[in-house]
Amino acid sequence: MEEKQGVKIGMPVIGGLIAAILGGIVWAAIAAMTDYEVGLIAILIGALTGYAVVLFSNKRIATVHKIIAVLFALVGILLGKYLTVVYFTSELFGDVSVMELVFDSEMISAFVETFQEYFSQPIDLLFIVLAIVSAWQIPGRMARTSLATDASSSDHAPRA
């Protein structure tokens, strides 16, 4: 998994995973504080995963890195939705903590069974698409910016 045709993917996968987990936690925390899901967080998750993949790949971007960013953006959104459902379920029952429910097999099964309900609104789909676009575009833009910076700095170097 580490290297394919000179492209390293191990560290970008780790970066994408970290970004997805952090993004999902932030999504749920904001939902818990506001009692409302803010769909714009999905776009931020896409941007965060894109940035993390670039950071962990040392700005050497290939198409596979963009795919990694998109996949982890989707993982972050899914995690955010799941943690939000867990939080509101714990609030509903009161005597069960969030940490007890996060890894509860019945909670996971219930979420999987009702999965489509959490993504059934057109606005949800819009934010998911925007997150995908962010996750796809940020690595390419950061790589181009990095290459442009490298090229301009080499233009100013003294020549022998």
Write the layout of secondary structure elements.
Layout (H helix, E strand, L loop, with lengths): L2 E2 L2 E2 L1 H25 L5 H17 L6 H31 L4 H5 L2 H9 L1 H4 L3 H34 L5
Helix pairs in contact: 1-2, 1-3, 2-3, 2-7, 3-7
Explain this structure to me?
The chain has 160 residues and is mainly alpha-helical. The longest helix has 34 residues, at 122-155. Strand 1 and strand 2 (7-8) form a beta hairpin. The chain starts with a strand and ends in a 5-residue tail after the last helix. Strands 1-2 form a two-stranded antiparallel sheet. Helix 1 (10-34) runs parallel beside helix 3 (63-93), helix 2 (40-56) packs parallel to helix 7 and helix 3 crosses helix 7. It has helices spanning 10-34, 40-56, 63-93, 98-102, 105-113, 115-118, 122-155; strands at 3-4, 7-8.
Described by the principal axes of the CA atoms, the overall outline is elongated
Give the structural class: mainly alpha
Radius of gyration: 19 Å
Oligomer: single chain
Notable characteristics:
single chain; mainly alpha; two-stranded antiparallel ribbon; 7 helices; elongated; 2 strands; 160 residues
